[in-house]
Design brief:
Blueprint lengths: L8 E4 L3 H12 L5 E3 L11 E4 L2 E4 L5 E2 L3 H6 L2 H4 L1 E4 L2 E6 L2 E6 L8 H6 L5 H15 L3 H4 L7 H8 L3 H16 L8 H13 L2 E4 L5 H9 L4 E3 L4 E5 L2 E4 L4 E3 L2 E4 L17 E11 L9 E4 L8 E4 L12 E7 L7 H16 L5 E13 L19 E3 L9 H21 L5
Parallel strand pairs: 1-2, 1-14, 2-10, 7-16, 14-20
Antiparallel strand pairs: 3-4, 5-9, 6-9, 7-8, 11-12, 12-13, 15-18, 15-19, 16-17, 17-18
Length: 420
C-alpha cells in the first residue's frame, strides 16, 4: 500500500525507537517525517571525536543476543569488536579475574582459583545460568519483581560474591550502586550475557543508529527542530510552525509534550563518563575492569584501545564510569578519579581528556515488561508512544516499542482504530 499525503506519519525523536518505527512504516510503503531536537540521529547513542580518539557518550555495549538487534542490525557491517565474557576485579590491593570458561577457555583456571567467590557461589552461577537458559524472556518478565540484591540473596549467593562481583558488575549496567534495579532486568541481562557476546562497534556506539538511518530511503528528517507540544491532530514546533498530523508517534519523553501527561514524568538514572590517556594498559585484553572497594568513586574502567576503533590516538585510551552521586566540580572529580585510579588500580600518569555527565542515561522504571501489544502504544486516537521507558531500559526494548507503535499506526490507517 503506498503512503499518501493524507496518511503521512510524523515521528518525534530520531533515537532507536523512532528509527525502528520509521523502518517498519517504510516497509509498508509509507514515507514518515521525523522531527529531532538535536543535530543527529541516535538519541542516547552518541560518539564523538576528540584528539583523534573515538569517544562514546558513556561506556555502552551491544549485547549480541538481543533478539530485535539481530533482526534489525547488520552485525557484519558494524564490524563488532568483542568484549571478553568476564571482568578483572580490583579489591583490597588485589587484582582477580573471573569469567565464563565455557566461551573463553582462558578463564577456566582464573575463575576456579578466584577469591571473589567460594565454590558454592561458582556452583550457584552455573545453576543460575542453566535456569535462565531454559527460561524464555517473556517468562522472566512475568516472575515476581524484587530488587536484584534480594534476588541474589534469595538464590543463595554469598555476601562476598555479591559485594566483590555482582554489585560492581551490574551497577555499571544498571547505573545505580545498590542493586535496587528489578530482578527481572538482572535475569534478562544475565541470560543474554550467557547466550552471546558483548560488543562495541568499530566506529563507536553511534554506528548503530547510523546504520538504521542509512536503511531509511523514504523518511524525511528535520534535525535541530524541537517540538513544543503535541495535541490530537496537531504538532507545534518551538519555532512557531504548526503541523497538521493525523498520526504522531512520540519516540522520546512524552510527559513534557502532551498536556495530560504533565504529572507523569519519568525519573532518570545518570552517570559520569571520563576519558583519560595513559602510556600502558593495566589490563591487556578486551575485558572490563571493576573496582569493588566501596570507598572508590570508580565503578568500572575499560581500555578502548584493547579493541579496534576507527581512529587511534597517540596513547592508550581509558574510560572510567562513575555511577555514585557526587557534587564534585569537574576539576575536583578529575582529581579524585586520578587518585582512585592510582590507589585501587595502580594506574599512574593518566592525562584527562574529556568528561560526559549523562543526566538521562537510563529510565528509572519499575514493573518492567518484555513485550507490549500495538494497542498499548496508543495514547489517543492519533497519538502513539514509543521508547524503552515503556518496557525496560534496553536497546532491545527501544526496538520493540518502536516496532509496536508503527504497527498500531498501520492498523489504524489500514484497518480502523484499535483504540480501546
Amino acid at each position: 500500500m503506498e503512503g499518501n499525503e493524507k496518511s503521512t506519519v510524523h515521528i518525534i525523536g530520531a533515537g532507536i525507537s523512532g528509527l525502528i518505527a520509521a523502518l517498519v512504516l517504510e516497509e509498508q510503503g509509507y514515507a514518515p517525517v521525523i522531527y529531532e531536537s538535536t543535530s543527529q540521529e541516535g538519541g542516547r547513542l552518541k560518539t564523538e571525536m576528540h584528539n583523534n580518539y573515538q569517544l562514546d557518550h558513556g561506556f555502552q555495549i551491544l549485547l549480541g543476543a538481543y533478539p530485535k538487534a539481530k533482526q534489525y542490525l547488520e552485525y557484519d557491517a558494524l564490524d563488532l569488536q568483542e568484549i571478553l565474557p568476564g571482568a578483572v576485579v580490583f579489591f583490597s590491593d588485589k587484582k582477580s579475574t573471573i569469567g565464563d570458561p565455557l566461551r573463553q577457555l582462558s578463564f577456566l583456571v582464573p575463575t576456579l582459583t578466584s577469591s571473589l567467590a567460594n565454590l558454592r557461589d561458582k556452583a550457584k552461577m552455573i545453576q543460575l545460568y542453566m535456569k535462565l537458559k531454559n527460561t524464555s524472556l517473556n517468562a522472566i518478565f512475568e516472575e515476581k519483581e524484587q530488587t536484584s540484591l534480594e534476588f541474589l540473596k534469595d538464590f543463595g549467593f554469598s555476601e562476598r560474591v555479591i559485594h566483590r562481583f555482582f554489585r560492581p558488575f551490574f551497577s555499571g549496567i544498571f547505573l545505580e550502586p545498590n542493586l535496587a534495579t528489578s530482578s527481572r532486568m538482572f535475569q534478562f541481562v544475565f541470560k543474554l550475557f550467557g547466550e552471546g557476546s558483548a560488543y562495541i562497534p568499530k566506529r563507536g556506539i553511534s554506528a548503530i543508529p547510523k546504520q538504521l538511518k542509512a536503511k531509511l530511503k523514504k523518511t524525511k528528517f528535520h534535525f535541530n527542530t524541537p517540538v513544543e507540544r503535541v495535541e490530537e491532530g496537531t504538532i507545534f514546533l518551538e519555532n512557531g510552525t504548526v503541523i497538521p498530523s493525523e498520526n504522531t508517534i512520540i519516540a522520546t519523553t512524552a510527559s513534557n509534550l502532551v498536556t495530560n501527561l504533565k504529572n507523569q514524568e519519568i525519573p532518570w538514572k545518570s552517570c559520569i563518563n571520563l576519558y583519560f590517556e595513559v602510556d600502558k594498559r593495566k589490563i591487556q585484553k578486551a575485558i572490563i575492569g571493576l573496582v569493588a572497594d566501596t570507598e572508590s568513586l570508580i565503578n568500572n574502567i575499560f581500555y578502548h584501545t584493547s579493541v579496534k576503533t576507527e581512529a587511534q590516538g597517540a596513547r592508550e585510551l581509558l574510560s572510567v564510569t562513575v555511577v555514585k552521586p557526587t557534587n564534585l566540580t569537574e576539576k575536583q572529580l578529575v582529581e579524585r578519579i586520578l587518585a582512585d585510579l592510582e590507589k585501587y588500580c595502580k594506574i599512574t600518569g593518566a592525562t584527562f581528556l574529556k568528561q560526559f555527565t549523562i543526566k538521562k542515561a537510563l529510565p528509572d522504571i519499575s514493573q518492567l515488561q518484555y513485550e507490549m501489544s500495538p494497542t498499548e502504544t496508543q495514547l489517543t486516537n492519533g497519538i502513539f508512544l514509543a521508547g524503552d521507558q515503556l518496557l525496560n531500559p534496553s536497546l532491545n526494548a527501544a526496538m520493540i516499542a518502536g516496532e509496536r507503535a508503527a504497527m498500531a499506526v498501520l492498523k489504524k490507517i489500514q484497518g480502523g482504530t484499535i483504540l480501546g
